[in-house]
Amino acid sequence: MRLARIAHPGGVAFASVEGDGDDAQVLEIAEHPFGNPNFTGKRWPLADVRLLAPILPSKVIAVGRNYAKHAAEFGNEVPSAPMLFLKPSTTVVGPNAPIRRPSDVGRVDFEGELAIVIGQPVKNVPAARAASAILGYTIANDVSARDLQKSDGQWGRAKGFDTFCPLGPWIETSLDASDLSLKAEVDGELKQDGRTSDLVHKIPELVEFVSGVMTLLPGDVILTGTPEGVGPIEGGQSVSITIEGIGTLTNPVENV
């Protein structure tokens, strides 16, 4: 199932996306998408609604340097354990929403990533049972103010600006995410071309590790890391990240 969050003529709702292209429809879900969703019977053509961020997490937990070649392109070693940092919930925006690039922070980079969406409250879940904790997967852009990341020595400010975590276009609940193509383009030019099989710390290990540190709540998001090829973005550009089996997340960039 493809779970989306939409703005429709009557308000905002979760929905299931069915079909593709011009025939795609969205079916409204009552209340929330966790467990066995109940449908209201309302539906609209996908073209008649606006896709929002598919989930509003209580927290976004990100994993740094989880692709060896990305760590190497900045002269870093791969950490022996997952390197965690947090992005505020206010960084989250949806498809086609602008990434608002502050004009006074120096270089700002895109980072295409596979995102895990948690489906139930979990604490200390073992890797062997990690799949039961996962609602599905979506696409993320871990936007980063690179100069601040270097100067601050910790990443809260560099990763924490409003709009610095686009998510979407929806959550795919039926997916083996262990070996998927991940590509990122800026203005149509290919910048990143990796596979999730190159993750140093794999998805079950990440869920185990993160849930050993903090309780994960339904809708929480874990960003799994980015392949090599990240680079700067400027106002007027557009970033598109495509992950096999999910779709494409596109966001314009605005200078503010």
Automatic annotation (TrEMBL):
<dbReference type="GO" id="GO:0016853">
    <property type="term" value="F:isomerase activity"/>
</dbReference>
<dbReference type="Pfam" id="PF01557">
    <property type="entry name" value="FAA_hydrolase"/>
</dbReference>
<dbReference type="InterPro" id="IPR036663">
    <property type="entry name" value="Fumarylacetoacetase_C_sf"/>
</dbReference>
<protein>
    <submittedName>
        <fullName>FAA hydrolase family protein</fullName>
    </submittedName>
</protein>
<dbReference type="InterPro" id="IPR018833">
    <property type="entry name" value="Rv2993c-like_N"/>
</dbReference>
<dbReference type="GO" id="GO:0019752">
    <property type="term" value="P:carboxylic acid metabolic process"/>
</dbReference>
<feature type="domain" description="Fumarylacetoacetase-like C-terminal">
    <location>
        <begin position="59"/>
        <end position="253"/>
    </location>
</feature>
<keyword id="KW-0378">Hydrolase</keyword>
<keyword id="KW-0479">Metal-binding</keyword>
<dbReference type="GO" id="GO:0018773">
    <property type="term" value="F:acetylpyruvate hydrolase activity"/>
</dbReference>
<dbReference type="GO" id="GO:0046872">
    <property type="term" value="F:metal ion binding"/>
</dbReference>
<dbReference type="Pfam" id="PF10370">
    <property type="entry name" value="Rv2993c-like_N"/>
</dbReference>
<feature type="domain" description="Rv2993c-like N-terminal">
    <location>
        <begin position="1"/>
        <end position="54"/>
    </location>
</feature>
<dbReference type="InterPro" id="IPR011234">
    <property type="entry name" value="Fumarylacetoacetase-like_C"/>
</dbReference>
